[in-house]
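Reply to thread "Modeling small-molecule complexes from scratch"

Following up on the discussion above, here's a worked example others can learn from. I took a protein sequence and the SMILES for zinc ion and predicted the complex. Inputs first:
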Amino acid sequence: MDSPVWARLVAAHEDARRVPSGGLPEHLPVAAVLACSDARVPPSVIFDQPAGSLFVVRIAGNTATPAALASLDYAVAQLGVELIVVLGHSECGAVQAAATGTCGGHLAPIVAPICEISRANPDAPPARLVALNVTQAVRDLVEHDGPTGIAARSGALEVRGAVHDLRTATLVDLTSSTIQPRIPVETP
Ligand SMILES: [Zn+2]
Protein backbone atom coordinates (compact mmCIF):
# COMPACT_ATOMS: atom_id res chain seq x y z
CA MET A 1 0.00 0.00 0.00
CA ASP A 2 1.39 3.36 -0.99
CA SER A 3 1.35 6.02 1.66
CA PRO A 4 -0.49 9.19 0.59
CA VAL A 5 2.43 11.09 2.07
CA TRP A 6 4.77 9.37 -0.38
CA ALA A 7 2.57 10.48 -3.27
CA ARG A 8 2.67 14.03 -1.92
CA LEU A 9 6.45 13.91 -1.62
CA VAL A 10 6.87 12.60 -5.16
CA ALA A 11 4.62 15.37 -6.50
CA ALA A 12 6.55 18.00 -4.55
CA HIS A 13 9.80 16.57 -5.85
CA GLU A 14 8.54 16.88 -9.41
CA ASP A 15 7.45 20.48 -8.80
CA ALA A 16 10.78 21.43 -7.26
CA ARG A 17 12.90 19.46 -9.73
CA ARG A 18 15.75 21.45 -11.14
CA VAL A 19 18.21 19.68 -13.40
CA PRO A 20 21.57 21.48 -13.18
CA SER A 21 22.00 23.20 -16.57
CA GLY A 22 25.78 23.12 -16.47
CA GLY A 23 26.12 19.65 -14.99
CA LEU A 24 26.78 18.87 -11.37
CA PRO A 25 28.19 21.71 -9.24
CA GLU A 26 31.94 21.30 -8.92
CA HIS A 27 32.38 23.28 -5.75
CA LEU A 28 32.92 21.46 -2.50
CA PRO A 29 30.82 22.00 0.61
CA VAL A 30 31.79 25.07 2.60
CA ALA A 31 31.16 23.37 5.94
CA ALA A 32 29.93 20.21 7.61
CA VAL A 33 27.14 20.14 10.16
CA LEU A 34 26.40 17.55 12.82
CA ALA A 35 22.74 18.15 13.60
CA CYS A 36 19.78 16.47 15.25
CA SER A 37 17.34 14.44 13.14
CA ASP A 38 14.48 16.61 14.41
CA ALA A 39 12.46 17.66 11.35
CA ARG A 40 12.28 21.23 12.63
CA VAL A 41 16.01 21.88 12.33
CA PRO A 42 17.13 21.27 8.74
CA PRO A 43 20.61 22.81 8.57
CA SER A 44 20.38 23.90 4.93
CA VAL A 45 17.20 25.82 5.73
CA ILE A 46 18.45 27.27 9.02
CA PHE A 47 21.65 28.51 7.41
CA ASP A 48 19.88 29.33 4.13
CA GLN A 49 22.35 27.37 2.04
CA PRO A 50 21.78 25.87 -1.42
CA ALA A 51 22.29 22.23 -2.33
CA GLY A 52 25.99 21.43 -2.38
CA SER A 53 26.92 23.92 0.31
CA LEU A 54 26.65 21.87 3.49
CA PHE A 55 27.79 18.33 4.23
CA VAL A 56 25.17 17.29 6.77
CA VAL A 57 25.26 14.43 9.26
CA ARG A 58 22.02 14.09 11.17
CA ILE A 59 21.37 11.83 14.12
CA ALA A 60 18.88 12.19 16.96
CA GLY A 61 20.53 14.21 19.72
CA ASN A 62 23.40 15.31 17.43
CA THR A 63 25.51 12.72 19.21
CA ALA A 64 29.04 12.10 17.94
CA THR A 65 28.57 8.36 17.43
CA PRO A 66 31.27 6.32 15.63
CA ALA A 67 29.26 6.43 12.38
CA ALA A 68 28.76 10.21 12.68
CA LEU A 69 32.48 10.67 13.30
CA ALA A 70 33.33 8.51 10.29
CA SER A 71 31.04 10.61 8.08
CA LEU A 72 32.65 13.81 9.33
CA ASP A 73 36.10 12.29 8.79
CA TYR A 74 35.13 11.81 5.16
CA ALA A 75 34.12 15.47 4.88
CA VAL A 76 37.41 16.61 6.38
CA ALA A 77 39.78 14.19 4.67
CA GLN A 78 38.14 13.84 1.25
CA LEU A 79 36.24 17.11 0.80
CA GLY A 80 38.60 19.43 2.64
CA VAL A 81 35.96 20.92 4.91
CA GLU A 82 37.53 23.49 7.24
CA LEU A 83 34.53 24.14 9.50
CA ILE A 84 32.25 21.73 11.35
CA VAL A 85 29.24 23.08 13.20
CA VAL A 86 27.62 20.93 15.89
CA LEU A 87 24.06 22.19 15.82
CA GLY A 88 21.83 21.50 18.80
CA HIS A 89 18.34 22.87 19.27
CA SER A 90 15.83 23.76 21.96
CA GLU A 91 13.21 21.22 22.94
CA CYS A 92 15.35 18.33 21.74
CA GLY A 93 13.53 15.04 22.31
CA ALA A 94 16.76 13.10 22.75
CA VAL A 95 17.93 15.48 25.47
CA GLN A 96 14.50 15.37 27.12
CA ALA A 97 14.60 11.56 27.09
CA ALA A 98 17.99 11.58 28.78
CA ALA A 99 16.86 14.16 31.31
CA THR A 100 13.92 11.98 32.32
CA GLY A 101 16.08 8.90 32.71
CA THR A 102 15.17 7.13 29.47
CA CYS A 103 18.68 5.87 28.93
CA GLY A 104 18.51 2.20 27.97
CA GLY A 105 16.79 -0.03 25.46
CA HIS A 106 16.70 0.77 21.79
CA LEU A 107 17.47 4.45 22.43
CA ALA A 108 20.73 3.73 24.23
CA PRO A 109 23.12 4.37 21.31
CA ILE A 110 21.71 7.89 21.01
CA VAL A 111 20.85 8.89 24.56
CA ALA A 112 23.44 7.10 26.69
CA PRO A 113 26.08 9.82 26.13
CA ILE A 114 23.48 12.49 26.91
CA CYS A 115 22.45 10.58 30.04
CA GLU A 116 26.02 10.81 31.28
CA ILE A 117 25.89 14.58 30.92
CA SER A 118 22.48 14.70 32.59
CA ARG A 119 23.64 12.61 35.54
CA ALA A 120 26.70 14.82 35.96
CA ASN A 121 24.52 17.93 35.91
CA PRO A 122 21.33 16.90 37.72
CA ASP A 123 20.17 20.45 38.34
CA ALA A 124 20.73 21.72 34.82
CA PRO A 125 17.57 22.97 33.09
CA PRO A 126 16.79 21.53 29.64
CA ALA A 127 18.36 24.45 27.76
CA ARG A 128 21.59 23.99 29.71
CA LEU A 129 21.61 20.27 28.93
CA VAL A 130 21.18 21.02 25.23
CA ALA A 131 24.19 23.34 25.37
CA LEU A 132 26.28 20.86 27.38
CA ASN A 133 25.40 18.11 24.91
CA VAL A 134 26.61 20.25 22.00
CA THR A 135 29.77 21.11 23.90
CA GLN A 136 30.38 17.43 24.55
CA ALA A 137 30.01 16.61 20.86
CA VAL A 138 32.44 19.40 20.00
CA ARG A 139 34.92 17.92 22.43
CA ASP A 140 34.36 14.41 21.02
CA LEU A 141 35.17 15.72 17.54
CA VAL A 142 38.27 17.61 18.68
CA GLU A 143 39.57 14.61 20.63
CA HIS A 144 38.71 12.06 17.91
CA ASP A 145 41.60 9.88 16.71
CA GLY A 146 40.64 10.26 13.04
CA PRO A 147 41.10 13.07 10.50
CA THR A 148 38.53 15.31 12.20
CA GLY A 149 40.37 15.37 15.51
CA ILE A 150 43.80 15.58 13.93
CA ALA A 151 42.78 18.55 11.79
CA ALA A 152 41.00 20.26 14.69
CA ARG A 153 43.96 19.93 17.02
CA SER A 154 46.33 21.22 14.35
CA GLY A 155 44.18 24.30 13.78
CA ALA A 156 43.35 23.36 10.17
CA LEU A 157 39.74 22.68 11.14
CA GLU A 158 37.42 24.80 13.25
CA VAL A 159 34.79 22.94 15.26
CA ARG A 160 32.05 25.17 16.52
CA GLY A 161 28.99 24.50 18.67
CA ALA A 162 25.69 26.33 18.29
CA VAL A 163 22.10 25.97 19.44
CA HIS A 164 19.06 26.88 17.35
CA ASP A 165 16.08 28.09 19.38
CA LEU A 166 12.90 26.80 17.77
CA ARG A 167 10.62 29.45 19.26
CA THR A 168 12.70 32.53 18.50
CA ALA A 169 14.63 31.17 15.50
CA THR A 170 17.80 32.57 17.04
CA LEU A 171 21.20 30.90 16.89
CA VAL A 172 23.38 30.87 20.00
CA ASP A 173 27.05 30.46 19.23
CA LEU A 174 28.55 28.32 21.99
CA THR A 175 32.14 27.45 21.34
CA SER A 176 34.95 27.49 18.88
CA SER A 177 37.81 25.03 18.95
CA THR A 178 40.11 27.72 17.59
CA ILE A 179 39.50 29.71 20.77
CA GLN A 180 39.57 26.77 23.13
CA PRO A 181 41.38 23.69 21.81
CA ARG A 182 40.18 21.47 24.62
CA ILE A 183 36.55 22.11 25.41
CA PRO A 184 35.74 21.87 29.12
CA VAL A 185 32.52 20.12 29.98
CA GLU A 186 30.85 19.86 33.34
CA THR A 187 31.47 16.20 34.03
CA PRO A 188 33.07 14.75 37.14
ZN1 LIG B 1 16.82 17.05 18.79
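What I'd highlight from this example: Confidence is low (pLDDT under 50) at residues 178-185. The first strand starts at residue 31 and ends at 35. Questions welcome below.
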